[in-house]
Amino acid sequence: MFKKILIAADGSDHSIRAAAKAIQLAEQNPDSEITVVYAVDGQTSKEDILHHFDKSIVDQVRKKRLEPIENLLKEKGISYEIKILQGEPGPAIVEFANKMNLDVAVVGSRGLNTLQEMVLGSVSHKIAKRVKAPVLIVK
């Protein structure tokens, strides 16, 4: 059974589907804990600041992206926490995940950053290759 579950999320439809699958896994164990991680790279950070000059508004915008996932977790009564990471999503999530004693990491097959997916390789691919725990990639 899965107790410690990580969801790599960016607010995309794929990450919401990944969260739904992670919740199904968590429902099998009443002691499950989910950590939702959202990595903010330099480009995203710059765009957030350009569109919203106030840091508190930037924080609200980032939390708003994860709201659908948070609503699913609340609806099911699953214990969770949200972590906002700084850095390129793939490496930042891998580093964070490998410091935890995870049972599984769940990630959507695609995210919001299509340019990065085409040029550098997808975040889900980096997570699958480098996270020490089992990784579930959800389409």
UniProtKB/TrEMBL annotation:
Gene3D superfamilies (alphabetical): HUPs
InterPro entries registered for this protein in UniProt: Rossmann-like_a/b/a_fold, Universal_stress_UspA, UspA
Domain named UspA: residues: 1-139
Taxonomic superkingdom: Bacteria
CDD domains: USP-like
Membrane spanning residue stretches: none
PANTHER family: STRESS RESPONSE PROTEIN NHAX, UNIVERSAL STRESS PROTEIN UP12
Family from the record: Belongs to the universal stress protein A family.
Listed name of the protein: Nucleotide-binding universal stress UspA family protein
Organism: Cytobacillus firmus
